[in-house]
């Protein structure tokens, strides 16, 4: 995720003496510095955190949950207008649940990865049915919602309810990899060692832990970025194991960016754009105009139907799921 949420109040943290980060890959060794990291990171966040709508108290737990779904693999600048319109239209989970899932896909616009819209709709329906329309406070109940994984459950519990959970997105993982374990990038997939380290780094007090989760995520988003870390402005630069080791280059396999042009994902996006903008079911001939390769076009369209993002009617026309 590219950003985090926090509705918890500012927390005063006092750093205690601790051994500096060593750059060792053993999380037990790196975590010796945890108490010395808390205060500077949280104090930096208190001064530099972006004013984002899902961080405001009025956002509530539903606003936090919506933001977490939208921010997955999507930058804040693209999320902001869609988020604000979404909350105007569906200020409560029950409001979204009352609409067909196709309306969620339509409102998702061009955020990408539109299955997130279906998952958010399913989560809203479950909240309305099982929890009286209120986003549950319990981590296990959050995790049981459709479309909610470990990260999202921890993020909502932490940022909406001020609970103590390890919240590990790409930004946080990168901060911990550099500051504690001394490597430029974390592994491609979250490991058990990373989860153990994140738990060890958590402050004991719940409100401080929630603030720490938000602060480390913001630090990774704004300063400790993937391609251009701004070490001169970093509040923990002097303690950073990677910097103290001379900022060694990534030693693992090359990190390639995702391609988009010419992929099935691009074709799916073009087809879905036609369905989103249509006020009535769309004939196949209209969809055939969006891409030149008939085999790839058919594969993409079948994929949309298989994923529940489109429906094929008996007369051969297509529409968003559940639309009239």
Describe the structure.
There is one protein chain. 51% of the residues lie in helices and 1% in strands. The chain has a two-stranded antiparallel ribbon. Strand 1 and strand 2 form a beta hairpin. Helix 2 crosses helix 12 and helix 3 runs antiparallel to helix 9. The radius of gyration is 22 Å and the shape is globular. The two termini are 34 Å apart.
Quick overview:
With 324 residues, the chain is mainly α. It has helices at 27-30, 34-48, 60-70, 76-89, 93-97, 101-108, 115-130, 139-143, 150-161, 170-181, 192-201, 206-222, 241-244, 264-277, 284-287, 294-306; strands spanning 311-312, 318-319.
Mean pLDDT over all positions = 90
Shape: globular
DSSP helix fraction:
40-55%
Structural class: mainly alpha
Detail the poorly predicted runs. 1-25, 27-32
Write the layout of secondary structure elements.
Layout: H1 27-30, H2 34-48, H3 60-70, H4 76-89, H5 93-97, H6 101-108, H7 115-130, H8 139-143, H9 150-161, H10 170-181, H11 192-201, H12 206-222, H13 241-244, H14 264-277, H15 284-287, H16 294-306, E1 311-312, E2 318-319
Antiparallel strand pairs: 1-2
Helix pairs in contact: 2-12, 3-9, 6-7, 10-12, 14-16
